[in-house]
Amino acid sequence: MTIPREAVEIDDAALIERSLDEPEIFATLFDRHAPLLHRYVTRRLGPGEAEDIVADTFLTAFQHRGAYDRSRGDARPWLYGIASNLIGRRRRAETSLYRAYVRSGVHPAELSGSPVEDGVNTLAVNRPLALALLELSPADRDVLLLVAWAELSYQEVADALAIPPGTVASRLNRARLQIRRSLSREGE
Fold first, then answer.
1. Model pTM?
2. 3-state secondary structure (DSSP) of residue 64
């Protein structure tokens, strides 16, 4: 299957609209966003869970593409919102991963021989940081990691999680304060 060149050059909203009549066009959305989404989910849940979450994210997106708000040209917040909901269903896996970081200081991707995502060793595997992330509420952790790791704006996080931008700001502020406190305790 060859995706037409013009499909690669249009924004996500137009692509999703077009995929209603030409479902194979939706693959372009996958090609655009799956690598970064996979990186984000790998950081949150490890490589074993990432494949499933990314696949389920795009399956859900495909199934619900008719309801996509076409006034939003960028589908990233929508996709990260779906992924965040799926991650939320696997909170135990995320908690276990952070506990493993704290115990061993080794990312599971390093053990499996898989390539470790950029930044995982410097950020996610940092034991004090992993412990601090573990102490955050799931809602605060979602906001913090969508900003820090997915590099979404406050408005994009608000769209992804279906919360007001002010709630994003307060959750992010709370998460940052708690992370700072946790890290300063660790440094004592």
1. 0.80
2. coil
